[in-house]
Design brief:
alpha/beta, Arc Repressor Mutant, subunit A, Rossmann fold, 6-stranded mixed sheet, two-stranded antiparallel sheet, Purine operon repressor
Length: 275
């Protein structure tokens, strides 16, 4: 006979289960059967976990009443914590050796740090927590880790737009779009089978200049009759004559970029008014 867990162990196990399954509705009977406990005891445990989550600022537990109800963990991050994380990232990005030709920043090392990615993903998930999201979309390649980090906290699939078509993806939908910075006509493609029609999509990208890539993804989604419910970018530039997208959220903003003297200055993006 399997040994029944003590309440302290049960609380730890329940907390771990909730953290690993964000946005998933978990019936109280699932926990009751798992631990051989009464629903009243499980409800008391969830109240303790709920209080802890809110105190630590890691999210909230939302209770859904009714026979088909249960509890759902919503990952959230307090504004003060989010500001601290973004300020730390902006400081790293201000290093002069990150400046690349064309006004781009080298960010691959930051986008390769699991801890930093997880923090960014939690911030994005917090910013778009109230949106009804079916998929997170990005364009290859540097936006991919950001999209996966965000989708992990939203518990939704990731859809990757390709610059070149791949035979392994089957039939694709391709469009031409104009790059906002270079004004060149480029192509992006998305496999038909990866995105059902009428889906609600959150677009995530690492860098935005004029917004040509984001506009291209918006136009591509129209071919799938999909709805764009939000656009989130890690860093945007401020010295743009014409922005091709208006409704977006940025974590950081480049306010000064001097190619000659290798000087870069960043400030917090517009997420401050959204979180």
């Amino acid at each position: 006979m399997e040994k029944k867990l003590r309440r302290s162990a049960r609380l730890v196990d329940m907390t771990q289960h909730l953290l690993e399954h964000p946005y998933r509705l978990i019936p109280l009977t699932t926990f009751a059967e798992e631990y051989g406990s009464a629903k009243s005891s499980i409800s008391e445990d969830l109240s303790i976990i709920k209080e802890l989550f809110e105190h630590k600022g890691v999210g909230m537990l939302k209770t859904v009443a009714g026979a088909a109800g249960g509890v759902r963990y919503i990952p959230l991050l307090k504004k003060q914590a989010a500001v601290g994380i973004v300020e730390e990232i902006c400081t790293k990005l201000e290093q002069s050796d990150r400046l690349l030709p064309g006004g781009y920043l080298y960010m691959s090392d930051i986008l390769g740090e699991p801890e930093t990615l997880n923090r960014i993903g939690r911030i994005m998930a917090t910013l778009f927590a109230e949106r009804d999201i079916d998929y997170v979309m990005t364009v290859e390649t540097k936006g991919i880790p950001l999209a996966h980090a965000t989708a992990n906290y939203l518990n939704v699939p990731v859809v990757i737009v390709r610059r070149d078509t791949k035979v392994t993806e089957g039939s694709v939908v391709s469009i031409n779009y104009v790059s906002g910075s270079s004004k060149r006509i480029q192509t992006m493609s998305l496999a038909r089978r990866v995105l059902p029609e009428q889906s609600k999509v959150l677009i995530i990208d690492d860098f935005m200049k004029a917004g040509g890539t984001a506009r291209g993804m918006i136009d591509l989604l129209k071919e799938f009759k999909a709805e764009v419910v939000g656009i989130g970018v890690l860093v945007e530039t401020s010295d743009v004559e014409e922005r091709l997208v208006d409704d977006y959220i940025s974590l950081g903003k480049i306010t000064q970029l001097d190619l000659k003297d290798k000087e870069i200055k960043l400030e917090l993006g517009n997420f401050l008014s959204k979180i």
